[in-house]
Amino acid sequence: MVRSFVGGLELIVNLLKSKNKEVLASVCATMAKIAKDEENLAVITDHGVVPMLAKLTNTTDDKLCRYLAEAVARCCMWGSNRVSFGEAVAPLIRYLKSKDSSVHQTTAQALFQEPQQLHHHAREQSGQGPARYDRLHCRGPSGSSRWLCG
Q1: Which residues of the chain fall below pLDDT 70?
Q2: Count of domains for the chain
């Protein structure tokens, strides 16, 4: 899909620089939809979307949080994007304080993609220092289970 609209994609990516929360939420929702396709995800990654999304994570706007978390979750499924969102874990955790259940749902999906960074953040916040572990067991929103090597 995106391959035939590269010029339009550049315009959409540039909208991630907007100061308008409604525009940003709409662009994040669009990015989440585009990123459902692996080839599209590769293209938007090449356009620098990941660091732009990561910079937006310090928001408190529920609508933006919802769509931003969904975009982060989708983008984490490509290459090293998951690692690139490492610094976004702490702001994403704060999204769970929202009263909006749709924010909780998309945030859980994003955090599920970030198990190692989440584990490190939790240990640092609890004063236990850097995490040392052999394996971390995670259960996803669909009930799926996986082991991750540390």
Answers
A1: 1-6, 114-150
A2: 1
Residue 123 structure tokens: 């240990």
Which range of residues forms the domain containing residue 51? 2-149
Separation between Cα atoms, residue 48 and residue 125, nearest integer Å: 30
Q: Which two tokens stand for residue 131?
A: 């995490």
Q: Alpha-carbon distance 71 to 52, whole Å?
A: 11
Name the strand (E) or helix (H) holding 138: strand 135-139
DSSP 96-121: TT-S-HHHHHHHHHHHHT-HHHHHHH
**Rounded to whole angstroms, how far apart are CA atoms 3 and 9?**
9
**Terminal Cα distance for the chain, rounded:** 36
CATH code of the domain containing 125: 1.25.10.10
Spatial separation of the C-alpha atoms in residues 107 and 103, rounded to whole Å: 6
pLDDT score of 1: 54
pLDDT value of position 18: 97
How many residues can be counted in the chain? 150
Q: Tell me the backbone φ, ψ of residue 17, rounded to 5 degrees.
A: -95, -5
Residue type, position 29, single letter? A
Q: What is the reported pTM?
A: 0.74
